[in-house]
Give the backbone structure.
Amino acid sequence: MKKYILIILVTFVLGSCQAPTEKPSNEATVIGYEFNDEGVKQNIVAGDVAITDVYMDYIQAHNDKNLDKIHEMDMEDVIIRAANGALYNGRDSHKQELEAWFNAASPAWKIKWMVANTVEGADGKAQNWLTTGVDVVQALDGNNITTHHVIDVNFVNGKVKELNVYDRASEKK
């Protein structure tokens, strides 16, 4: 009798266990939300990490002071929002500002981290973004000054469409 009770109990316990539900393999992982100008919540999903290669080429062009390559990698109507509040519209404006900065401070970039993400717009269009952290070393008044930048970069067709820079002082000297 004890065997039968044990078998019934084990059968009941095993039968009541549910297998974890798996999400369909084609469903993107939501990693956060963005709110558009109308306040509509839009999913941010894990993005295509292939854009990190484009970004690394972009940063290498900056380190090489290759203004022509940067110009080519920017979309014609690129928008750059600098950490100091400056706004640069268009790749010609960006090129001109970079040339002045390269001559004045000889900045150098070192990528620290990158996160690819995609915003699923309410209109059905996806925006591909890369949020990245870089250390920037500048030669100012004979001293090397390091700042840490967090940069949001919007890529369209493999080119930089929008770039937003935020910075803070670094612990490094």
Observations:
- The chain has a mean pLDDT of 87.
- The chain has one domain: 44-169.
- The beta strands are 30-35, 41-46, 74-81, 87-89, 108-120, 126-140, 143-156, 159-169.
- The two ends are 78 Å apart (CA to CA).
